[in-house]
Design goal:
Layout (H helix, E strand, L loop, with lengths): L1 H12 L7 H15 L18 E3 L9 E4 L6 H9 L13 H6 L4 E4 L11 H12 L6 H23 L4 E3 L24 H12 L2 H12 L4 E4 L2 E4 L9 H5 L5 H8 L10 H10 L5 E4 L9 E3 L4 E3 L7 E5 L7 H4 E3 L5
Parallel strand pairs: 1-5, 2-3, 3-4, 6-7, 7-9
Antiparallel strand pairs: 2-10, 5-6, 8-9, 10-11
């Protein structure tokens, strides 16, 4: 299995062209079907008998080391460096790469979402692409370069989910809105240009409505929150205290989706994390991790230290949590950047 996925990922990471229409459609259709039929043993069914918005690993018989991946924002090179990173001997005596450990079911990976849009890193390119966009050129060079990065990353993420469905997971972020829709917790996105609409128009013109629809289905099938004995994870800081029942039944709950993907700093209820930690884990020492808002350094503590932000867009940090081990940002947040 590992040889095949390595070959597939290497081809993706080093391709100099956009993924083909047929490849992207078939892959997105495959991963959407998988997400819509995930096992109830770790993704409880909602009141309609469908996989809910909650990944529950709190009762897993075999607790595994956990890697939390922050917002990726079209950084395919970051994902490649994660997979090739050799885990330190203090954590794994045989020092496997993360991809090797994943293939042997020795770890779990949770990505906090936000797969597309290069944001500040691509600011100048976005502004060039905007000039084309305003001239109704939706697939110009600048936008094509942006989408090649983003779709490479997105394709690799979907390949990993299809290959390791129980070990590799992605949560929905606020950028998982390829249709640039308003509704069901989604909002049109713009920061430096008109990024959400520019991506939508590119996809519509280059790939067509069929690829757009199946990628939207993938996004809308993503869970919102993951729970482990020692931590909770969502894309953003929870806006309020959400119950387990509400999250399980939250795939179409607009306020819940917004509250776990869009929360600005200083707008969450102060005890939302500690109350959710108590209900979901029963472990007063557990922590709540998320990305969404950019930080400097390795992490930022909020809500009296219970909520930890880990999205530094200028660095390639991942968080490694070992079962039963107290989190230490000095050792457990790891820089995977390939400096060679």
């Amino acid at each position: 299995m590992i040889e095949l996925i390595q070959k597939t990922l290497t081809a993706l990471f080093h391709a100099e062209v956009l993924p083909s229409h047929d490849y992207l459609f078939e892959l997105a259709d495959k991963v959407s079907t998988l997400l819509e039929n995930e096992r109830a043993s770790y993704r409880p069914l909602d009141q309609n008998g469908q996989p809910g918005a909650f990944l529950d690993f709190t009762k897993t018989e075999e607790s595994l080391p956990l890697i939390i991946v922050p917002d990726l924002h079209a950084r395919a090179y970051f994902l490649e460096n994660i997979l090739n990173y050799r885990l330190p001997e203090k954590f794994f005596s045989n020092t496997p790469t993360i991809l090797e450990a994943l293939s042997k079911k020795e770890i779990r990976i949770i990505c906090v979402g936000d797969l597309l849009h290069s944001e500040m890193r691509g600011r100048d390119r976005w502004l060039l692409a905007l000039e084309d966009f305003l001239e109704e050129n939706y697939t110009g060079q600048a936008m094509t370069e942006e989408m090649q990065e983003g779709l490479t990353l997105l394709s690799a993420i979907m390949e990993l989910k299809c290959t390791f469905p129980e070990g590799f997971h992605v949560l929905k972020g606020n950028h998982e809105n390829i249709m640039n829709e308003r509704g069901e917790g989604n909002f049109p996105f713009r920061k430096f240009a008109d990024e959400g609409e520019m991506v939508f128009r590119f996809m519509q013109e280059y790939y067509g409505d069929d690829v757009l629809m199946v990628l939207s289905a993938f996004e809308k099938a993503l869970p919102l929150l993951a729970a482990f004995p020692d931590c909770l994870i969502s894309h953003a800081e929870p806006a309020t205290n959400y119950s387990k029942e509400r999250i399980i039944n939250g795939m179409h709950d607009s306020e819940l989706i917004k509250g776990l993907t869009w929360t600005p700093n200083d707008e969450a209820e102060q005890n939302s994390c500690s109350l959710m930690i108590e209900e979901f884990t029963g472990n007063k020492d557990a922590l709540y991790f998320g990305g969404h808002r950019p930080i400097r350094g390795t992490c930022t503590y909020r809500q009296g230290g219970k909520y930890i932000q880990i999205h530094n867009p200028e660095r390639e940090f991942i968080t490694l949590l070992l079962p039963g081990r107290i989190f230490d940002p000095d050792t457990d947040i790891i820089d995977v950047e390939n400096k060679s």
